[in-house]
Amino acid sequence: MNDASPLQPIPDHIAPGLDVLFVGYNPSIRSSRTGHHYANPSNRFWRMIHGAGLTPRVYASREGEAMLALGFGFTNIVPRPTRTAGEITKEEYAEGRKALRRKLETYRPRAACFVGKGVYEQFAGRKTAGWGFQPAETEQVPGVREFVGPSSSGLVRMKLEEMVAIYGELARWRREELGSRS
Fold it and tell me: Is 21 helix (H, G, I), strand (E, B) or coil?
């Protein structure tokens, strides 16, 4: 892996009618270099969604495209890779907001899961109502439920067990409302 190689956005894994579209801030340096979402070894995403009951096993970041068959997709509000979300500019968020809205309107996932409160707040332009599903009347794209979970970044101090409990609500909804594909 060449540290001098230019950083590139990573492709979305998205298709029409997904159960859940996971929305991150932007790719990490590691994700950019590998071409896979949530690729940093310190990122707890894959363990978190498995522990919550969303997947039948812990997937590796390189298996992200296979998640489409389970009803899950991946995108970011900003495509430019950075070391931290703090490096994202207001202009990038403004453009990302528009692009994400177009993706939600085009692909119509049943739920958009914002992996981090800040991602949701940048998209919605307001504070969250707390963890979990946001009030239906505040949906940015009617018919696309909005779920806010903690960021899975290793920089987040929340314990994995707490994160799993929050994402467990998404897994229960999926089982009860949609029937599980996993």
Answer: strand
